[in-house]
Amino acid sequence: MTEPPDVSREYPPTPLVGVGALIVNNGKIVLVRRSKEPAKGEWSIPGGLVKVGETLKQAVIREVFEETGLDVEPNTLVELLERIFSDDRNRIRYHYILADYLCSVIGGSLNAGSDATDAVWADRAELNWYALPAVTMRVILNALDRDSQRNSRHNRDYGAVSDDS
Question: pTM, whole model, 2 decimals?
Fold first, then answer.
């Protein structure tokens, strides 16, 4: 069976469905520098388009491994959002519907892979340095807050002892 031709990402006839990975570990989040349009050269979270027959979580796992070398477990849908980019003539150049998931690392090591020229663990205090779009920054801060709350609940529920004791 032959694969259907790829729908053009640029000036698509319909919105394209994609995923993003909010990979958080010890209060840091993975950022990648994009090697392709849209937003080539800019920092963002790892992610990409969902393939036909692939679930959203399968797409997250695949995209993260391809772009970062990390094996992840997508845990929670943080946000469903749209990204629409227009050209100089106000035509829709790119239109994505994105499902961004909070993810835990379960293996691998961080290295820039396909669609990324660099990959880093960024601390919350360093995020402004990466000149992230406002919507990306908002989603990242939401994910960092959720991860912090999850860790606080885990420590409370399982009696973790702090270093202050």
Answer: 0.84
